[in-house]
Structures are given as structure tokens and as C-alpha cells.
Amino acid sequence: MSIKVAILGFGTVGSSVARILCDLKPQGVELTHIFNRSVARKRAEWVPSTVTWTESFDEVLASDANVIVELVGGLDPAGEWVRRALEAGKSAVTGNKKLIAQHGVELDRIARAHGASLFYGAAVAGGIPVIPGLQHGLAGDQVTRLEGILNGTCNYILSRMEEGAQFADVLKDAQSLGYAEANPSEDVDGYDARAKLVILSRIALRADLAVEDIPVRTITSIAAIDFEYAGELSCTIRQISRAETRGGALLATVGPMLVPKNSPLAWSRGTENMVLVGGKYGGDVVFSGHGAGGHPTAVAVVSDLITLAHGSGNIDLPSRKAEVSGEFLLRHYIRFVVKDRPGIVGEIAGALAGEQINIHALFQRPGFGKDSLPFVVTVEPCTNSALKRALAKISSAEWLAEPPLDLQILEPEEPLK
Ligand SMILES: NC(=O)C1=CN([C@@H]2O[C@H](COP(=O)(O)OP(=O)(O)OC[C@H]3O[C@@H](n4cnc5c(N)ncnc54)[C@H](OP(=O)(O)O)[C@@H]3O)[C@@H](O)[C@H]2O)C=CC1
Ligand SMILES: N[C@@H](CC=O)C(=O)O
Questions:
Q1: Of 61, 75, 304, 314, which one has the fewest beta carbons inside 10 Å?
Q2: Which architecture characterizes domain 330-409 according to CATH?
Q3: What is the ipTM of this complex?
């Protein structure tokens, strides 16, 4: 089978897809159209003259291109364009995790109803073949657990902060290198990773989760001092996404966590992503590689195009709607910054004891002024809600110089009692 391809969106990923198609010329894949707003400024001399540059989606829809590659991003108007293309019987390939997390099930239904296919291998973990790996390679297992690093921008920021860089500087670098989303809050506040976790949960756990049900935490509250205290616990800090089935329940969460330095997750640097998949029959499988950036992501898009050109469709793995709980039972790291005076630790211990939460350790580095003194309390495994109630009891204490930072510590979880 031969496919004619129209790329929608000639930005970081779209231009890399065009570049790879022009360089590799994969058999049966012909680039025919490039669509972008104000397209004249996008023209590149390395694109063959046979390719039509256009600002009109209707022109693409009316053309003989039978596959659209949506790399515009966001829900609107990109979602409407994908829907209209599928309804016209054209297949679609996209890297748009926001769209697939929220409307993937419905778009897949539309594709099947019109004899088309919908591929989104680039939507999770950039160039790492985790989606085809789950859809094909692990379809024969019963996956019960997903855990990993799903956002390259956060990993880039946190691994650079670990080396001493400042948050604002590294975020700027991530934006200029094309890793960050158009609105970087999607990355640093956890929404991008959450959308990816929803997609992976659908494929691997066969659970259809509502995006907004998964608790997310921002990485913007992490400070240099947290890497120092994390180091004293033989840990570093990474944005971790987790989902697992436990009994009848589904637990899921996204946010910065303390990761033991001997965990493979701690070794990931820069834009590397890593996904650990736990299967009932096959045990653990790890996927890793570059999760952001034009070329790695474009590899996933071009691989989807080659799969389509070979006439292969997706395996239908039905998912069921599932309710989410964020109540993992884990140790926590709590960093306080206080206006120092006697009795503070006693008040904290009292608030924790009121929720049956036991202190595990207490760290206080010398060398800080009394007006803004950071110290850390770690606690034995407890749920988020119990800890939240305990911290609420001291939230208006006059000695708090800033709200406490609470991070889960990633380690094998104690069995639920
Ligand atoms: N960058 C990455 O590392 C990865 C990105 N993705 C996903 O891939 C998609 C594209 O990302 P990326 O290439 O980084 O984004 P960019 O912002 O670099 O590219 C988007 C392109 O779409 C164009 N565009 C935006 N809105 C419109 C519109 N309304 N009409 C016509 N053209 C429009 C933009 O034009 P203009 O230049 O005028 O803004 C730009 O050329 C997103 O869904 C993203 O989440 C997935 C994995 C990794
Ligand atoms: N902004 C995203 C890009 C890839 O999905 C990220 O940083 O991971």
C-alpha cells in the first residue's frame, strides 16, 4: 500500500518529520502537503518542489492526501481537523497527547467507522516505542503497574537542577530547544505527563480514566535545598507518573517524588523518559530513551507512517471506565521553612500524631538564618489525605515562613492493611 501524507503544523516536530521523510524516503510514503498558518515564512529549500504548501485545511481535505499528520497541538482546532479527516476516510497520525487523552476513544471509534486508522505513537515518551510496545509486544500480558518519567522538560529541568542550575534558566533552555509545550505550565505543573499516563493506562491497564481525576503536583516548588536533603536520604528528585491496579481499585498520581539513587529512574538525565511496566505473567519490562525533541518524536511519527504504509492497523484493546484514587501508601518527605523558635518540632509531631503518622527522621542543616530556616521531616508510610489533614492543622502557624513542601518517596509500597 502507498500513502500520501499531509503534515499539519510545521513546527519543531512537523519540520523534523518532513526532514526524515525527505532524507529516508521510506518506501510507500510520499509527502504531498504541508499546512501551517502564515505558511510563507515556513518554506524550507530542502522540501521537494512537488510538495504543496498551504494555509487551507479545506485544501488538504479535498486533496488526494490519504493520511494527515497532526502536529499543531492543543484541543482546538487540531481536534476538529483530525475528526474531519477521519470522517472523510483519511487516516491520522498525531503526537497530540492532550487530544488523545481526552478524545482518543471517540476518535478511534470514528476512524474504525470510516475505514481509517488513528496512530499516536509519538503522544507518549517521544521516540521511545512504548505505545506500539504495549499494543503489540505486551498485549499478551496482564499489566498491573506503570511507573515512570513521562515528561522530558521536567526531567531536563530536575536533572540540571540536581547539578546546581536554576529552575528559571533551565526552563528557558528547554523552551528554546523545543522540548517544552507551547504553554510550559503543561509540563511543569504535570498536565502533560498526566495526559500521557491516561493514554498508557488505557492501553496497558485497559482502564479509561478521566484526566482531571488524577492528582497532579507541580515541580515549581522544588528548590536547591531539596536536592541537598534528598541526597542525605540517598535520593534525587524526579517527576514520576504512576498508575496501578490494586484489588478492584486503580491508583494513579503525577508529581515530583524522591527517587532512590539506586533506582534506574534516578539515572535518567536530560530529556530521557523511562517507563517501567509490571505484568502479571511477564514480570517487569523497561522502555527508555529520549522523550522530547523534534527528531526523537519525529521518529515515532515516521514509524507510524511506515506501519500504515504496510497496511497494518492497531489491535483493538477495549478499555473500561475506571475511578481513580491517589491514595498510595508511601513514606513522605516534608520540607518546612520556618521562623525559628522553640517548640516548632513538637507542634509538627503533634499534628502528625493526630493522624497516626509516625516520624521516620528529621534533618536540619546548619548555616541558615533564623528567619527562614529550612528543615525536613520524613514520615513512615501514610496516605496523602491523612498527611494533608495533619498539615492543615498547622497551616496557619505564625512560625511558617512558607507553606510546607510534601513529596512522596518512591519505594516498594507497604501492603495495605
Ligand atoms: N516538541 C516535542 O518534544 C514533542 C511534541 N509533541 C506534540 O507534538 C505536537 C507539536 O509539538 P511541537 O512541534 O513541539 O509544537 P510547535 O509549536 O513547535 O509547532 C506547532 C506548529 O503548528 C502551527 N500552528 C499552531 N496553531 C496553528 C493553527 N491554528 N493553524 C495553523 N498552524 C498552527 C505552529 O505555527 P506557528 O509557527 O505560527 O506557531 C507551528 O508551526 C504537540 O501536540 C506536542 O504536544 C509530542 C512529543 C514531543
Ligand atoms: N513537552 C513534552 C514534549 C513531549 O511530549 C515533554 O517535555 O515531554
A1: 75
A2: 2-Layer Sandwich (3.30)
A3: 0.99
